Structure formats: C-alpha cells, structure tokens
Amino acid sequence: MARPPPEKRTEAAGWQSRLAAAELLHHTLDKGLDLEAAMDASRTFRRLEGPDRGFARAIAGAALRGIGRIDYALGGMVQRPLADMEPEIRSVLCAGAAQLWMLGVPDHAAVSATVEAAGKWHEARRGGGLVNAVLRRASREAEAFHTAPPTSVWPEWMAAKLKSALGPERADAMARLQLEEPPVDITLKPGADPQAWAEKLNGQVLPSGSIRLASGAGLTDLPGYADGVWWVQDAAAALPAKLIGDIKNKRVADLCAAPGGKTMQLAAAGANLTAVEISKQRITRLRENIERARLPVAIVEHDARTWRPAEPLDAVLLDAPCSALGILRRHPEGAWRRDPKDMARFPATQAQLVQAAAELLRPGGRLIYSVCTPIPEEGRDVIEAALATGSWRRVKITPEEVPGFEAALTDDGDVITAPQALAEARVGAASVSGEIVAEPMKSDIFYIARLERA
C-alpha cells in the first residue's frame, strides 16, 4: 500500500518580523551600529511594510531596553554562557524573550514564530532546537526576568557608576524607567495654545508646558509638524533654554547646537541667535529643523572652544558633549557601546567649553550649562571647578521656574532630573499653578546649572 504524502509543514505567521528584529539586534549588539543605522543595514527589515515593520522595531527596541536583564534571566536557562553563543542565535533568543517578558505577546505565537525565524536565518538555523527549548522554558519562568536586579539592564561597570552618582534606590528607579517605551514630548512655538494643540494631537499638557504624546506616534504626518509649530524635545531637555530669562533682542549663542531643539526655543523667544556646531553632518540636521520652523538663526560651523563673536554676548547656552547616560531609555543600545575608559575624556572638554563661554560673555551675562547625564564628574564637578576660578557666580534655579520638576532641584540650586523612588520624592510640593506634585516627572536625565559672568 502506498504511503500517504507527508503532511506539508505550516509556517508560523509573523516570522519575518521576528527575523528582522533579530537582525536589528545583531547589527546593534555585535556590529556596533545604532538602531537607526541597523534598520538601514537589515535586508529583512527593509522588505517589511506597515504594521510588520512597526512590530519588528518594537521587538528590537524592547529587547535593547532590557537586554542586560534578558541576558541575566536567560543565563540560568542555558548550559553555556550567552556570550559564548553564536551571536545570531543569541539575537533570536533575545528577540523571543522580549516578546514574552516585555511585550506580552501570547506564548505560542512568540515561541513558534521566533523558532521559525531561526530556521529562516542561515547563521542561526542550527540553533532552532535550542531556541525552541529555551523560549518554552522562558514562557514558564517569566519570574526570572521580573525578579532580576533592576540595574542588570546595564553593564556592571555602568551600573556601579550610576549607583555611585544617584544612590542605589534612584539608580533602580532609573533602570526600571528604561524598561518602559518612552513617550514623545514636544515643544510648541510661543503663542501656540498648549491645551488646544494637546487636544488636536491627542496628547497631554505637562506642568512644564511640554506636550506628551503616546509612544510610537507617527510624528511627521501630525498637524503642525510640517509648519514648524512644534518640534520633538523631551520635557527635561526643554528646561535649559527656559532658564536663561528674557532674551528678546539679546545677543545669545547656542554652543554645540545640533540637533536644534534648544536652538529653536531660543530663536522663537526672540534672541539674536548664533548656533555654533562643529559637525558638518549634524549641521545639516540642525539647518533642516530651523528651516522647518522658519526661525532666524545664524549657523556657524566651528569648534565652540575657539569661536569668538564680534562683540560680547548677553547669554550662552551650552549643552555640552557628554556620556549621554541620561538618555539611555531612548538609545538603550548606547549602554553596550560605551567604554569606561572613553568616559574619562568628557570632563576636560566640558571644562574647556565653560572657560570659552566665560570669554564670550559680557560681565553679568548668563551661562546655562547642561549635560544629559547624572555623572557628577560631568556636571556638578565641572561647575564647582568653574566657580572656584572666580569667573562665575551661581544663580540658583527656583521651584517656580521648573514646574513639574520641583523634586529635581538640588540643595545648591541646580537641577538634576533623575527619577526618584516615590518615598524620596518631595511629595506635596506645590507647583506654580497650585497643584500638588504627586510624583516626579518621568523624563530624560539632565544636569542643569545657571551661572553669571563675574
């Protein structure tokens, strides 16, 4: 009797998105690309469209936000260290774990489609059995991820540095915040009605005046974007430009200006503004943003340490180059591309830029110094060293100037927008509007100080 033909195996739906996500992880974690560059490099990702493309990016983004914690949890489910595993197989495993533990994808769909993706990727094909076994176990043992130490989201050296800078509880709060998909904050041009635009964009007006949109919002198609009525800018990143004071018709420089969010704030406030940027590539983006907002700005391609204006300035905003540890929730792959030795180069450059600002300003002129990191060597220590020269006076920032960020004020009158454990927050502090601040604002982490030229 003839045997019946073998039953044709059915492919698991959605494997293309899983394969694309795994390729994105491979390009970022093993080849050193950032996520945007990885999306250009992944052939599978480029072939995807619409929701499939969005889902692949969501998987990769979630995996990158939690990769250290995923590695920690998966480490107890495999016989050899993940670091010794073929990188393509590790990428597939991490893409699957992110679906199970961070995105809430149903177990069967996550496991079957991810195993299918491994089978379609030549470099990961022979690991299909391992991927299947480990992800099935991961679906049963989700507590391995959820009970992992919060700071395992970062390399050990970085976790130690952040714990030293913030204290263990605040470092844990920062780590937990990284696991969340960050929202999109926008800044409006002066004169635009925040409440009206929040309703139009389905957003929420924050106490600081920024508007918060849901994560994943399709920005370029939203009303007001093409007209330059608003631009993307984290609520904390919008603070430095607001703290200079009245700059209408005053001579102001924005040093290290790209990509331009703070530049647009200063120009929109009526400053006679010069934007100084050393990178030709970043100037292209800066110019595009300024032209979209139709704002008058003089752009200078120059090293801010050696640029000098024709006459002394009234104010300088310096958003200095830094380790960028405060924006890891938006660029989580950055944690795994940092070298602890590389961190040491920033304070010297920051000190040189502050000294340059002293030479740009008239007596009594103001400097706003900001860095998107909580590391004291790049923030507080730079400012204390500048004050010790006698060239500067500190102008303390007040609670009324930072509504929604009252808990971020330091005893010295500076600002550091690091998240706090609720027990540490200054619960009950009154905002400018009289409302009660129930918990600190969730935002990127900036250190901000305001100085006046002696």
What report would you give on this structure?
By secondary structure, the protein is α/β, with parallel strands linked by helices. It folds into two domains: 15-148, N-utilizing Substance Protein B Homolog, Chain A; 233-453, Vaccinia Virus protein VP39 (Rossmann fold, 3-Layer(aba) Sandwich), CATH 3.40.50. It is built from 17 helices and twelve strands. It has helices at 15-29, 35-41, 43-47, 50-65, 67-74, 87-103, 107-120, 128-140, 143-146, 156-166, 168-178, 194-200, 239-242, 261-268, 280-293, 346-360, 380-388, and strands at residues 184-188, 204-205, 211-213, 230-232, 251-255, 272-277, 298-301, 313-319, 361-371, 392-394, 415-416, 447-453. The strands form two sheets. Strands 5, 6, 7, 8, 9, 10, 11 and 12 form an eight-stranded mixed β-sheet that branches. The chain is globular, with a radius of gyration of 24 Å.
Map the helices and strands.
Layout: H1 15-29, H2 35-41, H3 43-47, H4 50-65, H5 67-74, H6 87-103, H7 107-120, H8 128-140, H9 143-146, H10 156-166, H11 168-178, E1 184-188, H12 194-200, E2 204-205, E3 211-213, E4 230-232, H13 239-242, E5 251-255, H14 261-268, E6 272-277, H15 280-293, E7 298-301, E8 313-319, H16 346-360, E9 361-371, H17 380-388, E10 392-394, E11 415-416, E12 447-453
Parallel strand pairs: 5-6, 5-8, 6-7, 8-9
Antiparallel strand pairs: 1-3, 1-4, 2-3, 9-12, 10-12, 11-12
| Count of helical regions | 17
Total strand segments: 12
> What integer value in Å does the Rg equal?
24 Å
CATH class of the largest domain: Alpha Beta
Supply the CATH architecture of the largest domain. Answer: 3-Layer(aba) Sandwich
Write down the CATH topology of the largest domain.
Answer: Rossmann fold
What structural class should be given to the helix and strand makeup? alpha/beta
Query: Termini, distance in Å?
Result: 101 Å
- Residue-averaged pLDDT, rounded? 91
Q: Please give the share of residues in helix.
A: 25-40%
Which residue ranges are poorly predicted, with pLDDT under 50 across at least 5 consecutive positions?
1-10, 422-438
As a percent range, the share of strand residues is: 5-15%
- The number of domains: 2
- What coarse outline follows from CA principal-axis ratios? globular
Task: Output the helix-strand order.
Answer: HHHHHHHHHHHEHEEEHEHEHEEHEHEEE
Q: So what's the oligomer here?
A: single chain
Largest sheet, in brief, is: 8 strands, mixed
What is the CATH homologous superfamily assignment of the largest domain?
A: Vaccinia Virus protein VP39
